[in-house]
Specification:
The chain is mainly α and about 450 residues long. The protein folds into three domains: about 40-215, no CATH class; about 215-295, no CATH class; about 385-450, no CATH class. It is built from 15 helices and ten strands. It has helices at about 40-50, 55-65, 80-90, 95-110, 200, 210-235, 245-250, 255-270, 295-310, 315, 330-365, 385-405, 410-425, 430-435, 445-450, and strands at about 70-75, 110-120, 135-145, 150, 170, 180-185, 190, 235-240, 285-290, 375. Strands 3-2-7 form a three-stranded antiparallel beta sheet, with helices on one face. The chain has a three-stranded antiparallel beta sheet with strand order 4-5-6, with no helix packed on it. It is elongated and about 110 Å long.
Length: about 450
Amino acid sequence: MARKKTSATHDSFQNFAANLGIGTDNLTSASSYGFNPLSVNRLLLEYMYRGSWIVGNAVDVIADDMVQSGISMNTDALSPDELDIVQGALERMEIWTKLNEVIKWSRLYGGALAVLLIEGQDWETPLELDTIDEGQFKGLLVMDRWQLLPSVTDLVEELGPDMGKPRYYRTIGDAILPDLGNIHYSRVIRFDGYDLPHYQKSTNMLWGTSIIERINDRLIAFDSTSTGLAQLVFKAHLRTWKIEGLRAAIGTNATAVNNVIKNVKLVRQLQSNEGITIIDSNDEFDTHSYNFAGLDDCLMQFGQQLAGALEIPLVRLFGQSPTGLSSTGESDLRTYYDGIKKKQETKMRTPLRRILDILCRSEFGAPLPKGFTFTFNPLWQMTDLEKADIAQKNTAAIVQAYEAGIVSNHVAVKELKQMSNVSGVFSNITDEDIKESKQIAPLSELIEGDDEEEKPVSKTE
């Protein structure tokens, strides 16, 4: 049996005769990617953050949007007054501000921590929630990765989401923050920048990488282009003057050079809208203007690449809408807000629930009740017309459910009050109104009571 001839297959196009494709003799084949670990250069990252507004927006915008709208808490176990106490404690302890900081520094440096400040407890011991008494929670202390030394040789071995992470974080004391010693991992809330593969993370002290490292090449391209355009403005209108015997005059003596300079100054002084240019009959005077057409498109392309790399639309990153027919940036913002919602759910929900549990124990002496839930308030702000439309439809649905006997008067009033967070309607319903609504009988009983009322008997002669 004849043996079939085998040949190697490739998963990319190549044409060696035409020098097409990677691997052939062309300039593209010489292209590659270098290693530029910008995340380990703390000082450079800080100078970039301080001196570049684009870097500042790249770090701040997403962090600001992730915390700016707050949350809405839903539970029947806590009264509206108690929920207001929790919301007030979040503001009093500046929890949203601290979460904003820890997200920012994790994006800039590649990692940061928010330490849970529990008064009277040892940093080095594991945090046991049941040991938290009323008034012990004092807020959060934010530290970036350069203020900490993670225990890379002592990792968490217990099964769970923290497995493989450092067991302790040693604080580095300085003139502002004293040395707090070893902090147990259960007492911190950790945020990383961009995640790294296993072996890259192991060489980076188990931290992530800065977002600036990924966009550095596009950032240099954008800044180089914009700075180059700014310098071109000085050369947008050039004037040239061909002076007969100029080289000989310059080489003669200082008096001849001064005479040439005086002549040039005189011409510049007389050149205006109402002036006149006087030159020798053998001299030539010309003007040259630079055409900037197409450069704005080039700069916009670099800006779009930056926006794409950061997952921030142009209208949010640069404060300008994209160009094009019927292009307002609204759809881009909606897509961006959906991305923020995803980041909130994946990165903030678990830490925030933990903070709320500790806060509840510190304020009321009890853990979060069963069935407690919360939602992140939407970033998209509705217009007055949209709010009115939602209020009308939701009110009709609540009234219909009440009239059908599906919900009681108490539930209907609570639904109307909760709807006020979105539509702004029925915001004047107080907690007393909600309590009093429990005493009102269901609509079905009221109707039955009316039917059973004794009808007056007519008198007969």
